[in-house]
Design a protein that fits this description.
alpha+beta; 2 helices
Length: 71
C-alpha cells in the first residue's frame, strides 16, 4: 500500500513510486538517483522515482512547506 503506481501511457510502461516499488518491479535505480533520494529526504521532501519501460529516468523530491499562517 502506498508504494507506487504504474500504467501504460502512449504505449509506454510508466511507473512512479518509492525506490523499493520500482526495484520490486525489476527497475534498477542508478547510484546517482539513490544519492538524490538521500538529499531529498534531508531537505524534508519525499523522493518519488519515475521509470519508463523498465528504466529509471528521474527522481522528484515532493515537499509541502509549512506556511507561517498555518495554525
Amino acid at each position: 500500500l502506498g508504494r507506487g503506481i504504474s500504467g501504460t501511457v502512449a504505449g509506454e510502461r510508466i511507473a512512479l513510486g518509492t525506490s523499493a516499488y520500482l526495484e520490486h518491479s525489476g527497475v534498477t535505480i542508478p547510484a546517482e538517483m539513490l544519492s538524490e533520494k538521500e538529499a531529498a529526504a534531508h531537505r524534508g521532501e519525499t523522493p518519488v522515482f519515475v521509470s519508463r519501460n523498465g528504466e529509471c529516468i528521474a527522481v522528484i523530491g515532493l515537499g509541502d512547506p509549512i506556511r507561517e499562517d498555518s495554525g
